[in-house]
């Protein structure tokens, strides 16, 4: 006797419900954070940290000293171009460095890091070797802004993405150690530049070749990761080395200040790794953002104190943002979250340098202190930054700051 259609339909509904529950159980078993185990150390895990450190030394090292490269390009390679036009080379470089992550992150989640790391190596090495022999604006734009920007984006995203697969409880410490690499490169490269003969193109070739050699050595270790234009004559762009030179009156001292700034960042990034594991990731980030906001209210007579305090605290929050992102998603989705976040950051980076240049011109025209407008803009940006993360923390954990989160 055949079952009625109602009975058959009911039976199929039950079976379908059972299948859905089984799929849910399987999915939970595979992706539930309670089922995922992390090595939290060991030879392979720390080898990944070393490789990621080398990757950030080679990529963020150049990013953190782009102001030095801007001075070299304006004085040696393209002295006939306005500072505004040259500034766009480095604005676009910074933009590409972050925006490419929107594709790199999901690709990393799907296929792992090895092929992408090799592509990043090839792009950055060819880009910086080509930069040493460039003579035209478009050549420098293509080699530095585009080719090196893409390569740096690959290495930056992958170096941070790999670490989260090996650490959870000690993720703050591991990520802080990795981010020290970017500050280490930021200390070394500004000190190389004053030694090189800026008036000689041969000196430029030697400078970039030395940097290429250093980067190649770093990339060999990074593989251990397992898994012509019309010039506008108004100064609409400003970069950090020019600001420091204006405040100090000496290019050599400006280079040294840049090295001091990045050295302080090394300390801040190491502190971040230890503090977040003790106090919580968002708690530490909010405190560091508050200190950054306060440090912007600086006195020019205490410039070195300002540089150290600001970079110490900004080094903290630079390291903490990727860690805080990891707290909002599953490990297997981290590449996508990281890439999406820093794609938005890329547009802020692209706009910030022209905005700062426009503020300088506007304030200078009024006869007031030249950098007043940019200082205010920086301070307000940090206030907005602080309020956003404060809102997230309160929304998730409330006002009880004794809770580690």
TrEMBL record:
Keyword field: Membrane, Transmembrane, Transmembrane helix
Highest taxon in the source lineage: Eukaryota
TM annotation in the entry: 45-66, 86-104, 116-138, 144-166, 173-192, 253-272, 279-298, 337-359, 371-392
Stored InterPro entries: MFS, MFS_trans_sf, Proton-linked_MCT
Membrane topology field: Multi-pass membrane protein
Pfam families: MFS_1
Annotated localization: Membrane
Any one GO CC term of the record: membrane
PANTHER family, sorted: MONOCARBOXYLATE TRANSPORTER (PTHR11360), MONOCARBOXYLATE TRANSPORTER (EUROFUNG)-RELATED (PTHR11360:SF240)
Name of the protein this chain belongs to: Major facilitator superfamily domain-containing protein
Species of provenance: Aspergillus transmontanensis
């Amino acid at each position: 006797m055949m079952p009625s259609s109602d009975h058959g339909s009911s039976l199929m509904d039950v079976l379908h419900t059972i299948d859905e529950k089984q799929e849910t159980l399987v999915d939970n078993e595979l992706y539930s954070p309670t089922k995922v185990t992390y090595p939290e150390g060991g030879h392979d895990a720390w080898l990944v940290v070393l490789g990621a450190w080398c990757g950030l030394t080679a990529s963020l090292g150049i990013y953190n000293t782009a102001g030095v490269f801007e001075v070299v390009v304006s004085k040696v390679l393209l002295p006939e171009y306005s500072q505004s036009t040259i500034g766009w080379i480095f604005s676009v470089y910074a933009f590409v460095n972050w925006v490419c992550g929107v594709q790199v992150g999901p690709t990393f989640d799907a296929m792992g890091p090895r092929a992408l790391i090799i592509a990043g190596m090839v792009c950055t090495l060819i880009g910086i070797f080509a930069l040493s022999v460039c003579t035209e604006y478009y050549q420098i734009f293509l080699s530095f802004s585009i080719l090196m920007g893409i390569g740096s984006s690959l290495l930056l995203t992958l170096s941070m993405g790999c670490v989260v697969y090996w650490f959870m409880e000690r993720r703050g410490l591991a990520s802080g150690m990795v981010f020290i690499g970017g500050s280490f490169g930021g200390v070394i490269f500004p000190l190389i530049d004053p030694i090189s003969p800026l008036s000689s193109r041969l000196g430029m070739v030697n400078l970039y070749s030395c940097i290429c050699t250093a980067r190649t050595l770093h990339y060999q270790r990074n593989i251990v990761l397992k898994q012509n234009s019309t010039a506008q004559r108004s100064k609409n762009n400003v970069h950090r080395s020019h600001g420091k030179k204006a405040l100090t009156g000496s290019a050599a001292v400006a280079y040294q200040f840049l090295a001091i700034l990045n050295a302080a960042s090394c300390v801040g990034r190491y502190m971040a790794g230890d503090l977040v594991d003790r106090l919580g990731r968002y708690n530490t980030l909010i405190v560091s953002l508050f200190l950054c906001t306060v440090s912007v209210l600086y006195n020019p007579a205490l410039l070195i104190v300002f540089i150290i305090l600001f970079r110490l605290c900004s080094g903290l929050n630079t390291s903490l943002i990727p860690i805080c992102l990891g707290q909002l998603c599953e490990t297997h989705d981290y590449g996508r979250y990281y890439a999406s976040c820093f794609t938005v950051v890329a547009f802020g980076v692209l706009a910030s340098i022209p905005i700062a240049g426009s503020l300088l011109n506007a304030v200078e025209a009024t006869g007031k202190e030249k950098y007043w407008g940019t200082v205010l803009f920086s301070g307000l940006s940090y206030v907005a930054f602080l309020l956003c993360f404060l809102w997230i923390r309160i929304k998730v954990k409330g006002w009880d700051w004794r809770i580690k989160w």
